[in-house]
Amino acid sequence: MNPSPQPHLADSHDMIRVYGARENNLKNVSVEIPKRRLTVFTGVSGSGKSSLVFGTIAAESQRMINETYSAFIQGFMPTLARPDVDVLDGLTTAITVSQERMGADPRSTLGTATDANAMLRILFSRLGDPYIGSPQAFSFNVASVSGAGAVTVEKAGRTVKERRSFNLVGGMCPRCEGRGAVSDFDLSALYDDTKSLNDGALTIPGYSMEGWHGRIFRGCGFFDPDKPIKRFTKRELNDLLYKEATKIKVEGINLTYLGLIPAIQKSFLSKDREAMQPHIRAFVDRAITFTTCPECEGTRLTEGARSSKIAGKSIADACAMQISDLADWVRDLDEPSVGPLLENLQRTLDSFVEIGLGYLSLERPAGTLSGGEAQRTKLIRHLGSSLTDVTYVFDEPTIGLHPHDIARMNNLLYALRDKGNTVLVVEHKPETILIADHVVDLGPGAGSGGGTICFEGTVEELRASDTVTGRHLDDRAGLKSDVRTANGALEIRGANANNLRDVDVDIPLGVLTVVTGVAGSGKSSLIHGSFAKSGDVVSIDQGAIKGSRRSNPATYSGLLEPIRKAFAKENGVKPALFSANSEGACPACKGAGVIYTDLGIMAGMSTVCEQCEGKRFDASVLDYTFGGRDISEVLGMSVAQAHEFFGAGESKILAAHKILGHLVDVGLGYLTIGQPLTTLSGGERQRLKLATHLGDKGGVYVLDEPTTGLHLADVENLLSLLDRIVDAGKTVIVIEHHQAVMAHADWIIDLGPGAGHDGGTVVFEGTPTELVADGSTLTAEHLAAYVGG
Asked: Nearest 10 degrees: CA dihedral of 332, 334, 337, 338?
């Protein structure tokens, strides 16, 4: 009998080994992860899952790939510091598919963010009738340009001048410049015409007369800055509002003058509204009205681009179609001359349908996609990839998915694994945990109470383990035996935003209502589009918290304001001294707590500031105390400790105590109040946002998927919090897919039956018990299976 051949040495590297990881809250974590398998990382929110998977494994893989590029190219790339880990062995190329929202450029659409639009443009340039030009003629990001003039050329040793002309045909609508909407300015919101510029007439954020704007307005010479604006001549007003960029000299310095309206268009309107800071967004909403461009009817394209058609459809018609319908239309095109192109386009569109995004259209602005939709859109380009033996890293890929769609996502994760890839998934939903080949559970708690490996093994072994995840894996919320009675109703009549079909529905007041349905059925359109903008409504959406490493829970929640004032009053000094972003900052590190050293072509490094020892404040500021603590000691407290500290005795501050109470209520008692926002997990950020709105005076709370980023154990705490809000006399409306929240509701509104144009109608209204008994909708089937389990 022949001895079995020895395995090849190259096949022995079948593990990703991590030894001594200390990123964020990780406590010297060591773990071995099998390659070419599906590994799910679980644990309560804030236990260190993202720190291990994204902050250590994926970050080091990305850093090492960047180092393979030339020094010249690395100069244009972000410099990534090496993660705080002793050994990382067996890494493969990591591709992260995160929940980050897609580009907020107003010209970016779902079609331009993927390859679909590029392929459609080539298709129309080849087959479109009449022929109007190259693929650029169908692009709303390319303007038409023409020109003529004399050019100097060398011919036979002589220099001669020749007349040349050029003509570039682009598809950009000249009226709206490819945005699909035109802006109209309310001039009364830009300035107070009874005042002069020097008296502070301008009401535009950032346009004060103390800074550069004031210097330019005073020295430009186009108008008198001491004259009230209403007394300006026609020419002076035109110069103030509309003058294009003009070079001027002020006090010997070369500057550029630009009229108010082109300046606003350049600075504010070039950004997506959702990406703006709150005060800028409020100004834009007040001063500018957006209406559909009358010339291109919102299609962003020139008349020529819209006139060229294939099988009776223009490229604007194709982009406006639901992707599932567009896939069928492309399938019916029989043109051997562009066979490979049609095949590629077909595959891309089918991937959208397969991944559960067939209800979208290619003209959908990329900035309006939810986190879950953006993540699945990014996944599309990897599905057809011929790469193997890479590591795919997912951050809660089931976010925004109905239980009906989760099975589809699971199949995609399997497909990536079966091509020979390592798939790492950070996840809370039991449906995805159950399909794992290997599970790594972090915990046992969150923040400083987490950061250790509690369990490694199979799902069956996890079930038998005595970890928080193991104990809650088979948790099933039961249906309520008795539900609250409504004390009125919010009426929605004739709702037809997006895919809604003249929906009439009554939302009961004084109870917990859950609005559910498959992804794309019209839930957000119904709730956010109908009444979420009225004054009595507190709307908490899925938008990401924007904050730098200088922001922390204290600054974001408004907690720092009463604390600074109390310190200032106690010590008889200015409140600005107690801000690390203002006068109190350590002069060496400018209040950052760390010194960043740029090492040229190598990765930069950060070291704790030696002067303030990471406390971020000037030493003289730390001499001032309140309740026996200096400001750095206060910012080093956990939320729970600070809640106790500011709740009684000499250190009592009612305003601070109230805000801290809200943070404790949402389960963030373990967070340090001075911890940078950039170190918070997705679930922690979601709950921080919820806490900041708990003190708002609205009578109706609208929450958009509040279970995002929450562990099974944390969902129970969220439900009890929602109960407390309702019992306090408020109305709570939750847009949600989690069956535990559905089962806990007093009233359910189910939209469907499908997504896109197959949805947009109310398919059920009633109690959870009635929904399960009815059994006619997809939600009913999955809820029945859940409570039955």
From this structure: 10
